[in-house]
Specification:
Order of helices and strands: HHHHHEHHEEEEHHEHEHEEEEEEEEEHEE
Structural class: alpha+beta
Strand order of the largest sheet: 6-18-13-7-12-11-10
Largest sheet: 7 strands, mixed
Number of domains: 2
Number of helices: 12
CATH architecture of the largest domain: Alpha-Beta Complex
Distance between the termini: 108 Å
Radius of gyration: 30 Å
Strand content: 25-35%
Amino acid sequence: MTEIKTLEQVGEVISEVLEKSLPELVGKIIDGKLEEKGINKLEKKIFGSAKEIEGLEGKERTARFIKAVFNRDKETAMALAGKAMTGGTDANGGYLVPDEFRAEVVRMVEDFGIVRKLARVIPMKRDTLNLPKITSSVTVYWPGEATAGTASQPVLGQVQLLAKTMVCLTPLSNELLEDADIDTVGLLVELFAEAIIGEEDNQGLMGSGSPFTGIMSASGTNLVTMASGKETFQELDADDLRDLISQVKVMALPGAAFFMHRNVWAIVQKLKENSQHIASFASPIVSGDASKATGIVGYIWGYPVYLSDKITGTTAVSTKFMIFGNLKFLYLGDRKQMTVDISQDATIGSANMFESNMSAVRITERIALTVALASAFALLKTAAS
């Protein structure tokens, strides 16, 4: 051991010890105080350099983004989302989600949602988009010899897509959000994809005008009412289905399908003609890959059948309960802005998040829906008496 002989040497030793040990001691003290206040020390660290953030991919990037939103770390959340500081939040608050998260939600919605899968999806750069349509075409005449033809011209109209904000809310424990990992991201994707699927299908098929008018409520659709005395679903027969098909424009038949509740499908499966069932069944999906799911449960005279719990499944008089038509004539405007926000003070139903040590996770997205050609659809309705 070196003998210390002067005060100068003593000072040098103390300086060396402080230089090596002080940062570590201070760090431990700070970490201890953060833990006392329930703040995860890892998350209070700004995520280092831009290079470190760029190195994160997919669900890991999204998991850290969720933690940053939970901790109200705006700079880190925006950096992880890859959005410019000026465009990181929308007018309603919230943080624009990473593209990977939105892509995963949309993939599930496209795989399992009837409307998202079959409607014509139109990207929107603004909240309002007007699209032209022909309301009536030119007229053909056969003038006699040496007689001038009569001029005519098509009548043009507009289909307007007006984006509205969809809000999905779900409560999650604070512990789950503090420790958010890849599994947490997967859970959120499933929760919000399921909610979006249900609401897009509900508005596209059944919407009554708040905020969108769906196929069942659109004016100008073809209506087939079952014969007098056929007041219930159970009195449905093959002729009613034929009448539906005959009402749809020929140009819309390629790509047309039947849409009904599973209760109605159970009745259709039993219908027979010449001792033969009119419905055939789709081949079962043997692969576990959800992306291969078609959603088709069977066929009626070659037209596919899709089921939706959003369509009426309880029989009653004067009730529309089945759609036949081509969903390409239902337009879905995609504003492509999905935001997330987390609140520890919100109340969902009667549950107070603060009292329950939970947080409300809110996802918002802007979409638009409109029926572009009502005559591409026919609706089946029970008789009034």
